[in-house]
Specification:
The complex is a heterodimer of chains A (713) and B (156). With 713 residues, chain A is of the alpha+beta class. Chain A folds into three domains: 14-178, Aldehyde Oxidoreductase, domain 4 (2-Layer Sandwich); 186-258 and 308-400, Aldehyde Oxidoreductase, domain 4, CATH 3.30.365.10; 407-433 and 469-712, Aldehyde Oxidoreductase, domain 4, CATH 3.30.365. Helix content of chain A is 27%, strand content 21%. Chain A has 17 helices and 24 strands. Chain B has helices at residues 23-30, 75-78, 86-93, 103-116, 122-128, 139-154, and strands at residues 3-8, 11-16, 49-52, 55-58, 71-73. In chain B, strands 2-1-5-3-4 form a five-stranded mixed sheet, sandwiched between helices. The model of chain B has no long low-confidence stretch (mean pLDDT 97). The chains are: A alpha+beta (713), B alpha+beta (156). At the A-B interface, helix 5 and helix 15 of A face helix 1, helix 2, helix 3, helix 4 and helix 5 of B.
C-alpha cells in the first residue's frame, strides 16, 4: 500500500475561501458550549456527526460541548448543495482549518492573559492551561476574542496521529431522537398557528387545467383558501385531514388536458438516440505507438429512469412574515440555491427570503424537496401570515419529482491479434443529470412551470468534468488503454423530467465499462481480476480489488446456479475507491446473496459511518439493478405506488461485507456514492457467470433475462 | 360527533372524531403523536405502523372505530431515553439506520415479532420486517439490532 505524507494546504479549503469569516463557522458561549455552523446539511448520511468530530478534535473539546447548527440563509456559510459525496471534503476541510486557526487565536489570547508563552500552553476540553497551574478557557475568553475576522491559513491542523476522535466510530448525534420518536423531521414539527396545504396535480405530464369547479372543496369544513394561478392550484385548511378532503373534492371538479407525449418505455435506447442532442467530447487519449487493430467489438448498455423514491413524501413549511418577506423551512439539499430560485419566482430580493434547513428523510439526490418549498410559499400567500405546511402525496412524489435519467451507452473496443485493447470509444445518450435550483436564470421549481405566467421547464444539463461530470461521470476509463475517445450526447428535449440522482451517470457508465471489460477478459480467457490489475497503475485502485478478491476468496469453485462477478470504480475518478464482488443465485429470478466490498476513502473520519454509507449504497444499488424502472405510458408516469415501483425488501437483501482500507494521512473522501456503480457491474457480471447470459439492459429481471437469452440465441 | 375510547401507550384516551377517519390522522393530527410516520397512505410501506394489541398494523389503513377499547402503542410508547426498550437500545448500539424515517415503523414490527417469537432467527426477522420498506439500505443493521435485542431480553 502506498502512503502519502501530509502536506500543508497551500491555500484555504474551498468552502473556507468562499466563507472566510471564522465566526460564521465557530462560536463559543460563556456557558461552555461551542457552536459549529456548517453549510452542509444532514440527509441521513451522518455528516453532522463527522463534522462535530472534526471540530472537537481540532479545538480539543469534548464532543458533548459541540452544538451543530442547522444550515440557514440567515447565518450559515454558503456551501452550495449537499451532494456529490463532497461534504467531508468541503465542509470537513473547512471546519478543520477554521478550528485550527480559532484554537491558535485563543492560544494567543491566553498567552497574553496568563503571561505564558504559547508553546507552554495546552488545551484540554476547552481549558487552556500552562506551567504553575495557570489556566483560562475558550469560554472565559469568548467575549474578549473576536472571531469576526477572515481565516488566514495562519495555523496548521493537527497531524493525524494527534487526532483523538477522527478515525473513531463515534455514535451519530441524531440517532437517539429518531429511535425514541422525538420530533426531528420537518414532517413532525408543527409551528404555532400552522395551517395545512395540498397542491392538486394531474396524473398527466405537463397538464393544463382546462376547467375547475371549486364548489365541492368550498363545502369542506376547515377550508381557509383555494389558491389558483394558471395551472397551479391548491388548498389551505385548518387541519391536514381537511386539506386532504378539500383536495379530493377539488380533484373531482378539475378537468385537465395535456399535449405531452412520453417515449415508448420499451424502446428507451432508440428514443434517446433519436432526440436532438448536444454532443460533447469528454476526453480523448492518443497512443504514442499504435498496434494494429484486427477487429472491433461493440456493445450497448442501457439503464432506465430511476426514482429517488424517498420513504417520506417531500414536505415544506412557509410563512409570510410581511407583505414581501417569507420564511421557509425545508429539507432541500441547498438552502441558498433554493432561495435564489424562490427569489426568481417571487421577484423579490434574496434578502427578503430566509430558507432554513430541517431534516427530512433520505433524498438520494434532487427529489421534490425544492418543489414542495415553492408550493408552500405560493399557498402561504393566502394564509394571512400563518405558517403553511405542505406535503406531497406518494403518487405525486413518484411521478412529478425529477427522476434519475435513462441512459444508452455504447462502447467499442478495437482489439489487436492478441485480443489486447488498442482503442476504446465510449458514447453516451442521456438527458442531463442536473436541473437543481439556483443555477440558472430561470427557476427549476415545478410550480414555476405551472403559473399563469409560466417559466419554461428547465432542461437538465451536466456539471463539467472538473466537478465530476454528469451523464459522463466515470466515463473516462481509469484503465491504461492506449487510446480512447469519450463523448456524451445531452438531450435537448425532456419529456420525462430528470435531475440529480445519487451518482448521476456513474452508475450507468461503470455498469457499461465493467461489464464490457468482463467480456473482453473472457475473449482472452483471462481472469477478470488479473485483467483489471494488469490495466491499472494506481496502487490504491489495485489495493481495493486485491482486498475484495482476497476476502471473497476469488474465485470460488463453480457451483450450479451460482455466479460471482467483480465491479470496480473510483467515484468521479477522484473520490473513493471501491471494488465489489457479488455472489448471485437463481435461474429465472436472480437473488444477490452476498456483496464483498473493499473501499478506500482516504482518512475515514467515522469508520462505522463510512461502512454504513457503503452498505446502504450497495443495498440501494442492488434494488436499482434487480427491481427498479420508472414505468409510463404515452401520457403519464404509471409507477406511482410501491406496488408499481417495487424496491428491495428485507427478505431480498444480500449479506454485505465491507472492508475499509484506512489511510489516515490521505485526504478524507465521501462514501455515499462509491458503491453504486461497482455493485451494479458486479451483479451483472455474476449473472453472466451463473447463467452465461449477458444482460445489458437494466434492471435485471425475469423479463430482461429472457430478452437477453433470445437476443444471443 | 361520536367519540372513540382506547388506551394509547397505556393511557386511557377518548377522541371525538369521525370513527371512519384513519388512526394515523387521529394520532398525528388530533393527538399530536408524530412517531408514526406517513409514507404512502396505502398500507404499502410500514412507516406508520403501530401496535394494536400485540399486532403491528398500518395506522394509515386502520379506521379509528376498529381500535375502540383496544391497546394502541406508538413508537413513543415503546420506551424513551430514560427507559429505553431493548430494541431502541439495540438500534442505537448497532447504529441501525441512516435517515431514520422508516425506523419508527420498523421498531413496531420488530416489537410485535418479539412478543410472538422471543427467539427469532435472522430469517424470522427478515420475514417480520418484509412489509416495511427502507430506502437507505440499513436492512442488515436492523436485522442485527433486532437479534441483539432478542438476545438481551432472553438473558434477563
Amino acid at each position: 500500500m502506498t502512503e502519502r505524507a501530509p502536506s500543508p494546504a497551500p491555500k484555504l479549503p474551498v468552502s473556507l475561501a468562499a466563507n472566510p469569516v471564522l465566526s460564521s463557522w465557530v462560536q463559543f458561549s460563556r456557558d461552555g458550549q461551542v457552536t459549529v455552523s456548517p453549510g452542509k446539511v444532514e440527509i441521513g448520511q451522518g455528516i453532522v456527526t463527522a463534522l462535530a468530530q472534526i471540530a472537537a478534535d481540532e479545538l480539543d473539546v469534548d464532543i458533548g460541548r459541540v452544538q451543530m447548527v442547522r444550515a440557514s440563509t440567515s447565518a450559515s456559510p454558503n456551501e452550495g448543495v449537499t451532494s456529490g459525496s463532497l461534504s467531508v471534503q468541503q465542509s470537513g476541510r473547512a471546519i478543520r482549518q477554521a478550528c485550527a486557526e480559532v484554537r491558535q487565536i485563543f492560544l494567543h489570547a491566553a498567552s497574553d492573559r496568563l503571561g505564558v508563552g504559547i508553546d507552554a500552553l495546552a488545551v484540554e476540553d476547552g481549558t487552556i492551561s500552562g506551567p504553575g497551574n495557570v489556566r483560562t478557557s475558550y469560554w472565559e475568553l469568548a467575549e474578549q476574542v473576536s472571531l469576526d475576522r477572515d481565516a488566514t491559513l495562519g495555523a496548521v491542523p493537527k497531524a493525524s496521529t494527534r487526532r483523538i476522535l477522527a478515525g473513531n466510530s463515534v455514535q451519530r448525534l441524531d440517532i437517539p431522537d429518531k429511535v425514541f420518536a422525538q420530533p426531528r423531521f420537518i414532517h413532525d414539527t408543527p409551528l404555532p398557528g400552522m395551517l395545512h396545504g395540498r397542491v392538486l396535480r394531474s396524473e398527466l405530464s405537463a397538464a393544463k387545467l382546462t376547467a375547475l369547479s371549486e364548489d365541492g372543496a368550498r363545502a369542506v369544513a376547515g377550508l381557509v383558501a383555494i389558491v389558483r394561478d394558471g395551472n397551479f392550484v391548491g388548498v389551505i385548511s385548518e387541519t391536514e385531514n381537511g386539506a386532504l378532503d378539500a383536495l379530493k373534492a377539488l380533484r373531482k371538479g378539475a378537468t385537465w388536458s395535456s399535449d405531452a407525449r412520453l417515449p415508448d418505455e420499451d424502446q428507451l435506447a432508440a428514443f434517446l438516440k433519436a432526440q436532438p442532442s448536444e454532443p460533447t467530447v469528454i476526453d480523448t487519449r492518443t497512443a504514442s505507438t499504435t498496434r494494429a487493430a484486427v477487429r472491433t467489438i461493440r456493445r450497448q448498455y442501457t439503464r432506465p429512469y430511476i426514482a429517488h423514491a424517498s420513504i417520506a413524501p417531500s414536505c415544506a413549511i412557509a410563512q409570510w412574515t410581511a407583505e414581501d418577506r417569507v420564511h421557509v423551512w425545508t429539507h432541500s439539499q441547498g438552502v441558498y440555491l433554493l432561495r435564489a430560485d424562490l427569489a426568481l419566482v417571487l421577484k423579490l430580493p434574496v434578502e427578503n427570503i430566509t430558507v432554513e434547513h430541517m431534516e427530512g428523510a433520505g433524498c438520494y439526490g434532487h427529489n421534490a424537496a425544492d418543489d414542495v418549498a415553492l408550493d408552500a410559499v405560493l399557498l402561504a400567500k393566502a394564509a394571512q401570515r400563518r405558517p403553511v405546511r405542505v406535503q406531497w402525496s406518494r403518487e405525486d412524489e413518484m411521478s412529478h419529482a425529477p427522476f434519475g435519467a435513462a441512459m444508452a451507452i455504447e462502447i467499442e473496443a478495437d482489439l489487436d491479434a492478441q485480443n489486447e485493447i488498442v482503442n476504446w470509444r465510449h458514447s453516451i445518450w442521456s438527458n442531463g443529470h442536473a436541473a437543481r435550483p439556483g443555477r440558472a436564470a430561470s427557476p427549476a421549481l415545478l410550480a414555476g412551470t405551472e403559473l399563469a405566467n409560466p417559466f419554461p421547464r428547465t432542461i437538465s444539463t451536466n456539471p463539467p468534468q472538473a466537478n465530476g461530470g454528469g451523464a459522463d461521470r466515470n466515463s473516462i476509463p481509469l484503465y491504461d488503454f492506449p487510446s480512447w475517445r469519450i463523448e456524451s450526447h445531452r438531450l435537448l428535449t425532456m419529456p420525462i423530467r430528470t435531475s440529480a440522482l445519487r451518482t448521476l451517470g456513474a452508475q450507468g457508465n461503470v455498469f457499461a465499462i465493467e461489464c464490457f471489460l468482463d467480456e473482453l477478459a473472457a475473449e482472452r480467457g483471462e481472469d477478470p481480476v488479473d485483467f483489471r490489475l494488469r490495466h491499472l497503475s494506481d496502487e490504491r485502485a489495485k489495493d481495493v480489488i486485491r482486498v475484495a478478491a482476497k476476502r471473497a476468496k476469488w474465485k470460488p469453485d463453480k457451483q450450479a446456479g451460482k455466479g460471482y462477478g467483480l465491479g470496480f470504480a473510483r467515484y468521479k475518478n477522484a473520490g473513493a475507491y471501491c471494488a465489489v464482488i457479488a455472489e448471485v443465485e437463481g435461474a429465472e429470478d436472480i437473488s444477490v446473496r452476498r456483496l464483498t466490498i473493499a473501499v478506500d476513502v482516504g482518512e475515514a473520519i467515522n469508520p462505522d459511518g463510512v461502512i454504513n454509507q457503503i452498505e446502504g449504497g450497495a443495498i440501494q444499488a442492488t434494488s436499482w439493478v434487480l427491481k427498479e424502472r420508472v414505468r409510463f405510458d404515452r401520457q403519464r408516469i404509471t409507477s406511482t405506488t410501491w406496488g408499481a415501483y417495487p424496491i428491495l425488501r428485507f427478505s431480498e437483501v444480500p449479506d454485505v461485507q465491507v472492508e475499509l482500507i484506512q489511510r489516515p494521512d490521505s485526504d478524507p473522501l465521501g462514501a455515499g456514492e462509491a458503491a453504486h456503480g461497482p455493485v451494479t457491474a458486479a451483479i451483472a457480471n455474476a449473472v453472466f457467470d451463473a447463467l452465461g447470459v449477458r444482460v445489458r439492459n437494466l434492471p435485471i429481471t425475469r423479463d430482461s433475462l429472457i430478452a437477453a437469452m433470445e437476443s444471443t440465441s | 360527533m361520536s367519540s372513540v375510547r382506547f388506551r394509547l401507550n397505556g393511557v386511557e384516551t377518548e377522541v371525538g372524531a369521525d370513527p371512519d377517519r384513519s388512526l394515523l390522522d387521529v394520532l398525528r393530527g388530533t393527538l399530536g403523536m408524530t412517531g408514526p410516520h406517513f409514507g404512502c397512505g396505502a398500507n404499502e410501506c410500514g412507516a406508520c405502523n403501530v401496535l394494536v394489541g400485540d399486532h403491528a398494523v398500518a395506522a394509515c389503513d386502520t379506521p379509528l372505530w376498529s381500535v375502540a377499547d383496544k391497546d394502541v402503542t406508538t413508537p413513543e410508547g415503546l420506551g424513551n431515553a430514560q427507559a429505553p426498550h431493548p430494541l431502541q437500545r439495540a438500534f442505537i448500539a448497532e447504529q441501525a439506520l441512516q435517515c431514520g424515517y422508516c425506523v419508527s415503523g420498523i421498531l413496531i414490527s420488530a416489537a410485535a415479532l418479539l412478543k410472538r417469537n422471543p427467539t427469532p432467527t435472522s430469517d424470522d426477522v427478515k420475514a417480520a420486517l418484509d412489509r416495511n420498506l427502507c430506502r437507505c439500505g440499513s436492512h442488515n443493521r436492523m436485522v442485527r439490532a433486532v437479534l441483539r435485542a432478542a438476545a438481551e431480553m432472553a438473558a434477563r
